[in-house]
């Protein structure tokens, strides 16, 4: 499998904000999420146990790929008959709240937790996670160098990996080449947002229930702000400058947000202000949108013949750009061991089972190649069964992920890590508040100018936490 790289610009490494105490995370990072019960509620399932079994508790998000792992747990039991696995499977927002509260408080309820590259480095810096380097090195055939490099770096802190990826993603554009051809248009492999707007205006046909483009509008730091932040990046915008001065009132941010809002209001789907990832996926899969910019993991739904009518009628291009060479994001669901776990060796055996190359082969053979967790291991794209079905999206996926760095995707140096998010504890709350303002602008209940004025006020409060004295 060929890979792509770009030297890009080189930015100076930034210093990270001071680590947060457990109290500050529990008191501030979970604000707006409500009190998180630490009891093992939600959907729980376990493997067969015996009197001599060692039991571990695994907290995961109830996404389809994770549910597949629960269904395949007997394979783990056959290899590890003395380890009993109890799953706590919860919807994403509830899982984040419960896992964060448990790990930050040192509660010790969980032996394995599913987190992301948003949490990993922050929690490692705070001493809340177990360094996994020695575990990976001592496990025959684990091959940590097989992880996609940008994903491995995103899950590391000071040269050590503290969580391992289950699946990862960047972002790209899916489009209908048949519709473009009918309109006399041709999609570049590296389109600009100006070109995408032009194509959307031509392809938009409400009378035929065809949106020119689908874009997320549903408020949330992990919903509408995910694609929008990459647009802000490639327009040359930023949330804060190197002195933590808020920049959401800059011309670059205004231009990016105005383009996004106007595009989806004019050429997008009905009800865009409340459309999340799942809504857009359904729209595209049922043939009601000509283009969609979003996560590369969309392919699992679009290419699934059981839920999609367009799997044979689509192609993929890199994320649209303006002032940068690339404009994708980087995200990974990963597995980590809290430092408080008393069963670290057993926990690692489970993590190794769920993230080693053999697991992906197992999923393909038992469930189907389209169900493979994408975007974690390079070797996944070399499995013959998967390579065949991924022929038209493997290269753009890997190209996007290989180049999802701030050097390639941003114009200015910034004091925070992250592309579609800011790796600071306050971003869950800040991002959701800003996302609500953007959603209101998409709904037409306020102007982009008013939305960004309020967003700037929210950002100023956070900036003072990091020393800005404006």
TrEMBL record:
Could you tell me which residues belong to the region Disordered?
1-22
Fetch the InterPro entries from UniProt.
Answer: Bact_solute-bd_prot1 (IPR050490), SBP (IPR006059), TAT_signal (IPR006311)
So which domain of life are we looking at? Answer: Bacteria
The molecule here is called Sugar ABC transporter substrate-binding protein
**Organism of derivation:** Candidatus Nesterenkonia stercoripullorum
């Amino acid at each position: 499998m060929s890979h792509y790289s770009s030297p890009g610009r080189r930015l100076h490494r930034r210093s990270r904000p001071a680590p947060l105490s457990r109290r500050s995370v529990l008191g501030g990072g979970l604000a707006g999420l409500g009190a998180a019960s630490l009891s093992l509620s939600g959907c729980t399932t376990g493997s067969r146990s015996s009197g001599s079994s060692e039991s571990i508790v695994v907290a995961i998000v109830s996404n389809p790929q994770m549910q597949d792992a629960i269904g395949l747990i007997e394979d783990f039991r056959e290899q590890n008959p003395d380890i009993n696995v109890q799953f706590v499977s919860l919807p994403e927002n509830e899982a984040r709240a419960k896992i964060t509260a448990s790990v930050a408080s040192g509660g010790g309820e969980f032996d394995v937790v599913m987190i992301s590259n948003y949490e990993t480095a922050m929690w490692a810096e705070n001493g809340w996670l177990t360094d996994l380097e020695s575990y990976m090195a001592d496990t025959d055939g684990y091959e940590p160098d097989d992880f996609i490099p940008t994903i491995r770096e995103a899950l590391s802190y000071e040269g050590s990996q503290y969580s391992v990826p289950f699946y990862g993603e960047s972002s790209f554009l899916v489009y209908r080449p048949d519709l473009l051809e009918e309109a006399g248009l041709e999609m570049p492999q590296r389109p600009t947002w100006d070109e995408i707007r032009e194509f959307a205006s031509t392809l938009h046909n409400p009378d035929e229930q065809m949106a020119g483009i689908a874009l997320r509008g549903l408020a949330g730091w992990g919903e509408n702000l995910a694609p929008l932040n990459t647009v802000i990046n490639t327009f040359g915008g930023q949330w804060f400058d190197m002195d933590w001065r808020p920049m959401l009132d800059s011309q670059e941010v205004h231009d990016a947000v105005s383009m996004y809002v106007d595009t989806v209001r004019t050429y997008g789907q009905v009800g865009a202000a409340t459309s999340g990832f799942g809504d857009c996926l359904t729209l595209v899969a049922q043939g009601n949108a000509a283009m969609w910019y979003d996560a590369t993991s969309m392919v699992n739904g679009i290419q699934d013949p059981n839920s999609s009518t367009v799997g044979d009628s689509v192609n993929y291009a890199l994320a649209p750009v303006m002032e940068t060479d690339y404009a994708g994001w980087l995200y990974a669901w990963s597995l980590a061991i809290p430092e408080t776990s008393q069963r670290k060796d057993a926990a690692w055996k489970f993590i190794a089972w769920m993230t080693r190359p053999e697991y992906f082969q197992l999923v393909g053979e038992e469930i189907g190649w389209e169900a493979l967790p994408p975007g974690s291991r390079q070797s996944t794209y070399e499995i013959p069964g998967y390579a065949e079905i991924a022929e038209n999206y493997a290269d753009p996926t890997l190209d996007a992920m290989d180049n999802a760095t701030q050097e390639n995707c941003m114009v200015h140096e910034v004091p925070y890590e992250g592309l579609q998010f800011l790796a600071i504890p306050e971003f869950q709350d800040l991002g959701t508040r800003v996302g609500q303002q953007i959603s209101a602008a998409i709904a037409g209940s306020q102007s982009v100018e008013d939305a960004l004025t309020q967003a700037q006020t929210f950002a100023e409060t956070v900036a003072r936490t990091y020393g800005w004295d404006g």
